Amino acid sequence: MKWERTVTVVGCHVGGEDNHVIVGGVLPPPGATMFERKRYLETHGDELRRWLLLEPRGKPSLCVNLVTPPTRADCDAGLIIMEATDYPPMSGSNTICTVTVLLETGMLPMREPVTSLTLDTPAGPVPVEARCQGGKVEQVKFTNVPCFVTHLGAKLDVEGLGSVPVDVAYGGAFFAIVDAPSLGFAVEPKEARDLVTLGNRITAAAARQLPVRHPENPDIHTVTFTEFAMPFAGPGTVSRNAVIVAPGRIDRSPCGTGTSARLAVMYARGQLAPGQGFVHESIIGSRFEAGIVNTCMVGGRSAIVPAIAGQAWITGVFQHGVDPSDPFRGGFTLPDLWF
Questions:
Q1: Could you give the CA distance from residue 102 to residue 71 in angstroms, rounded to a whole number?
Q2: Pick the CATH number of 5-143+314-322 from 3.10.310.10, 3.40.50.2000, 3.90.1640.10, 3.10.180.10
Q3: What's the DSSP call for residue 172?
Q4: Is 298 buried (19+), middle (13-18) or exposed (0-12) by CB count in 10 A?
Q5: Is the pLDDT of residue 339 over 90?
Q6: pLDDT by residue (tens digit) across 218-252?
Q7: Is 91 a catalytic residue?
């Protein structure tokens, strides 16, 4: 065995979504902020993402997180999120998995019954409270960055569908949110392929027809996800959703940033008030608890500050290596899986 590089990764999932965490073998990229560090990896170090997330080591449904020292004195660790095709500024499911790995492996000290810490993310600082018992993280609750609506009921011309009303909101990334029943969906596992096919068309149409840009960071722009939302069902405020992510799949978890975007829309429509509880369910039945903890203004827009909670489980420890003679050491994709 002759490897020119090794990287150690702890496997973790939340709500069925694979979000692994690098714990060794990668130095922090340069940059005065986490957004600059993210941008450096995008432009100068993308081989790390391709190597870990593309085949033969990765898969379309895998995300990998790089933990670095923070760039801010008020944060405990920095976080850069790598997904199958890009680097989102923020991800709720990846936050929950990363905090679980940091505490359960001892990279950060665990304090029972609650460990409080703050992650330095490209979207901004994210405060976290982890409920811990017996050396295990039983729940991670994070307070997201301010989230806001850019469009309510906008008409979107979608190939094969015609005019579709959509809401667009920022929850750490920009989401197009559509009413699932109006498009003939109940958000059930048997609909997964059809949801992905249509969701990709909606995302592409929204990116072209509904330009968006974060007022405080112009480098965060463009609708990149579509969220199919079901109406409330059962006792309390419970709703099922399916978020379509690149390169063409459904988020197995309820999606933390998607939940945040939906909370912003619900607040704007008068459907949810600060202090009210909300349960978001994924297509496979996993759940996040959520709510609005505060309101604020972002660039002249009314915004909310949401909190999301969920539990993650560590699945294994992996050591990846690069053999210089491997013809596929840089990774590859095929359109049978990578749509």
A1: 18
A2: 3.10.310.10
A3: S
A4: middle
A5: no
A6: 999 999 999 999 998 765 689 999 999 999 999 99
A7: yes
Task: Find where tokens 């709720």 sit.
Answer: 92
Please tell us whether the domain made up of 147-309 is placed in CATH 1.10.1040.10.
no
Query: Terminus-to-terminus CA distance in the chain, angstroms?
Result: 34
Distances (CA, A) of 264 to 9, 23, 121, 193: 34, 34, 20, 28
Domain residue limits, the chain: 5-143+314-322, 147-309
Q: Would the pLDDT of 2 be above 90?
A: no
The b/e string for 200-232 (b: 16+ C-beta within 10 A; e otherwise) is bbbbebbbeebebebeeeeebeebbbbbbbbee
- Structure tokens, 305: 């500050």
* Residue 244 CB partners (closer than 8 Å, separation 6+): 195, 196, 199, 200, 202, 203, 225, 226, 227, 228, 250, 251
> Cis ω on the peptide bond leading into residue 215 (within 30° of 0)?
no
Phi (first) and psi of residue 105, to 5 degrees? -95, -5
Q: Catalytic: which of 91, 239, 282, 286?
A: 91
Domain 5-143+314-322 and domain 147-309, same fold? Reply is yes
Per the document, the length of the chain is: 339
